[in-house]
Amino acid sequence: MSIPEIFRRVRLTVAVALTAVAVPAVAAEVADTLLSPAMIVAHPAQAVLLGVARAGSRLVAVGEHGLVLLSDDDGRGWRQAPTPVGVTLTAVTFPSSRTGWAVGHRGVILHSADGGESWSRQLDGAQFAAQAQRQAALNMAAGASSPGRALADADLLVRDGADKAFLAVDFTDDRHGLAVGAYGLCARTGDGGEHWVSCMTQLPNPKAAHLYAIARSGSVTWIAGEQGLLLRSAGDEPFLPVPVSYGGTFFCLGIAGNGDVLLGGLRGNAFASTDGGSVFKRLDVGRVGSCAAMRSADGRLLAADDLGQISRYDPALHALSVLPGPPQAPLSDFISLPRGELLTVGVRGVSVRPGRSAPL
Predict the structure, then answer these.
(1) How far, in whole angstroms, is CA 169 from its chain's centroid?
(2) Integer Cα distance of 228 and 185 in angstroms
(3) Rounded distance, CA 9 to CA 19, Å?
(4) Which of 117, 139, 320, 359 is the least buried, fewest Cβ under 10 Å from its Cβ?
């Protein structure tokens, strides 16, 4: 199996693992991941890592088996923080230096109030399903539209148990957040995670497509996923589908400094809109693999892929071009460092590559 394929199985193609029917021994082992804390890892910076965020001056990375790493020297040294679960964590965000969230498999949402030093579980898949079921029943009693579908979806969540993964999380501040994931999983909070509310039936996602990425520009929120799904909401308005001439999977979303909206998907398929999302046009790309992450860095919009490359978006040329640098293992996320480099995480852990100093 090639390294890119391994990467896809770890980070992007979660459906196989999520839909597999477990024998009793495996089921018992999976159940323990919600009850057992993350194991201590001898060399955590070399473990499989899937997300990284900045919490003030600190870097926080997350990955397999509940792993959370902290660095207080811009990635030179790392230490492991304890977490209450052993599930794979897929994404992390810190809207402020102290307050952050990490999400992952089995519907887990973890919260930290001390810059990542300690974590508490706010939600798991079983709790989410039960809450969705109660909410659907209340909505039905209140005469809400399409109550039957909402209750049927909630009942299915309860029957499935905690088997679905959150894959992306975004907070506008320390109170208001959104998490999305496999099979249309969607949860909102307006009180810092004290209460998470299902928003699955509020999304126009009738096929329950996996949702992989969230991006914001001002009051506009975007969600992207498989089967060419792209959703947009302005302020408190409901999410509406945005047409894109592509039926494959979108793994990445990004907003360029000039306001262009970018989408990245399988095997170098990438699109950009220069008019706020009315029209998306295919981008010219070089040797670009399946997109893993998009971020703004030093005024540029950059994308990482499963070939271990970093690409830069050029709005004038309407193109993605690969930055020079040595080949790396498949990447899952990256972040810019004050000294001008890019810190990347992926299947081989943490690495640092030239950033600002690289010729463009």
Answers:
(1) 6
(2) 17
(3) 13
(4) 359
- pLDDT value of residue 326: 78
Running DSSP on this structure, what letter comes out for residue 117? S
Counting every residue written for the chain, the total comes to 360
Amino acid, res. 3: I
Scored b (16 or more CB within 10 A) or e, 29-65 reads ebeebbeeebeeeeebbebbbbbbbbbeebbbbbbbb
| Residue owning tokens 């909206």 | 261
Is the CB of residue 322 less than 8 Å from the CB of residue 287? yes
Which residues of the chain fall below pLDDT 70? 1-31, 136, 138-162, 355-360
Q: Which residues pair with 271 in a beta bridge?
A: 263, 282
Quick one: 123 exposed, middle or buried, by C-beta within 10 A (0-12, 13-18, 19+)? buried
d(CA 211, CA 12): 10
CB distance 162 to 124 below 8 Å: yes
Given this model, what pLDDT does residue 150 score?
Answer: 64
pLDDT confidence of residue 14 = 37
C-beta of residue 211 within 8 angstroms of C-beta of residue 167: yes
Q: What is the pTM of this model?
A: 0.86
Residue carrying the six token digits 């892929």:
305
DSSP letters of 247-278?
Answer: -S-EEEEEE-TTS-EEEEEGGG-EEEESSTTS
Torsion of CA 78, 58, 93, 36, to 10 degrees: 40
Convert the pLDDT of each residue in 75-91 to its tens digit.
Answer: 999 999 999 999 999 99
Rounded to an integer, what distance in angstroms lies between the CA atom of residue 122 and that of residue 187?
12
**What is the model's pLDDT at position 157?**
63
Q: Are 98 and 88 in contact (CB under 8 A)?
A: no
Q: Which amino acid is at 22?
A: A
Amino acid code (one letter) for 218: G
3-state secondary structure of 288: coil
